[in-house]
């Protein structure tokens, strides 16, 4: 079985204020279903109130992330599934719940990492 990263950037969540409560309820319901199905590995979102820092090999710290990279934000879920077909089905459920498209990638998992 492979692990799949299902994610979206914050800007994709173009949700009317009146729907946020329903989005939270629906998204949490899908996550509960993934847990009950035994496919949930982990999930969460980037805390955008805490700016990133870039840490070098010598331990020095600089404010901000890579200057050439787009900002990393949004929400992430990793599920362990037997096929890409099932990963697409779970990504579609999350897209419906979150009211935005989800990016789907195979998550490189190495037991020694």
What this model shows, in words?
- This is Transcription initiation protein.
- InterPro entries: Dimeric_a/b-barrel.
- This protein is α+β, with helices and mostly antiparallel strands.
- The chain has one domain (1-13, 20-45, 72-113): Alpha-Beta Plaits (2-Layer Sandwich).
- The chain contains two helices and six strands; from the N terminus they run βαββββαβ.
- Helix 1 runs antiparallel to helix 2.
Q: In the CATH classification, which architecture applies? A: 2-Layer Sandwich
**Biggest beta sheet summary:** 4 strands, antiparallel
| Anisotropy-based shape | globular
Structural class: alpha+beta
Percentage of β-strand residues: 25-35%
Helix amount: 25-40%
Count of domains: 1
Pattern of helices and strands: EHEEEEHE
CATH domain class name? Alpha Beta
| Fourth-level CATH superfamily | Dimeric alpha+beta barrel
Separation of the first and last Cα atoms:
18 Å
Mean of the pLDDT scores?
A: 95
Topology, number of strands: 6
Radius of gyration: 16 Å
Instruction: Provide a count of the helices.
Output: 2
Instruction: Determine the CATH topology.
Output: Alpha-Beta Plaits
Organism: Singulisphaera acidiphila (strain ATCC BAA-1392 / DSM 18658 / VKM B-2454 / MOB10)
Protein name: Transcription initiation protein
